[in-house]
Amino acid sequence: MLPNAQTEAENQITVDIINTAFMGNITEVQGVIKRNDEEKKLRLQLTKCPNLSDKLSFTVPRHAIKFLESVK
């Protein structure tokens, strides 16, 4: 499913990376997203990404991400 042009801003996520950890084929990313003047911390597990910069941007289908637990 590709992003709808009307909701593309909703589907575009940019993460300011705070920390990364490498565990075999998994890269764990801890970062912050800013939405509607609000900051939220998040943790992602990605398939082997050794060369990340200080920002990570990606697009996902609407409602594809569920925040299941608080990250402190």
UniProtKB/TrEMBL annotation:
The protein, known as: Uncharacterized protein
Source organism per UniProt: Haemophilus pittmaniae HK 85
Highest taxon above the source species: Bacteria
